[in-house]
Amino acid sequence: MVTTINDNMYSAEVMHDPYHYYGQIRDEDAVHWNELYETWVITRHDDLVWLTRNHEQFSNSVLAKDPRPPYPAINDSDAELYDFMKAANEQRFIQYDRPDHLEMRKVMHGYFTPKSM
């Protein structure tokens, strides 16, 4: 049986049971193009490992540099705040690609050892 994957990742149904939703994607289309949000949904560990090791082909900063308007749409009165938050997110550690991400990770690594925790 072929089912259609609901691309609305933020629907009430998905929020109520995300494990079922992402499990379905993993089982039926592990590297899934989400038409609604125009983004890839990657659900298998091996695929994610490959992505993180091939930063020339995959960038964490894609969201920060996305030229499209916000989706879902926001009120015009919130546009300035949206632009501020988007610029702030560009500076977040998680948005960095190698080698910058790796250098920052080295600095932080010692604080997250079992002994430190």
Overview of the molecule:
- This protein has 117 residues and is mainly α.
- It folds into two domains: 1-57, no CATH class; 59-117, no CATH class.
- Helices cover 40% and strands 7% of the residues.
- Strand 1 (31-34) and strand 2 form a beta hairpin.
- The chain is globular and about 45 Å long.
Mean residue pLDDT: 86
Name the overall outline.
globular
Number of helices: 5
Q: What number of structural domains do the residues give?
A: 2
State the share of residues found in helices, binned by percent.
40-55%
What is the number of strand segments? 2
Strand-residue fraction?
5-15%
Specify the structural class.
Answer: mainly alpha
Q: List the uncertain runs.
A: none
| Sequence of secondary-structure elements | HHEEHHH
Strand arrangement, major sheet: 1-2
Calculate Rg over CA atoms: 17 Å
**First CA to last CA: what distance?**
47 Å
- The biggest beta sheet, please? 2 strands, antiparallel
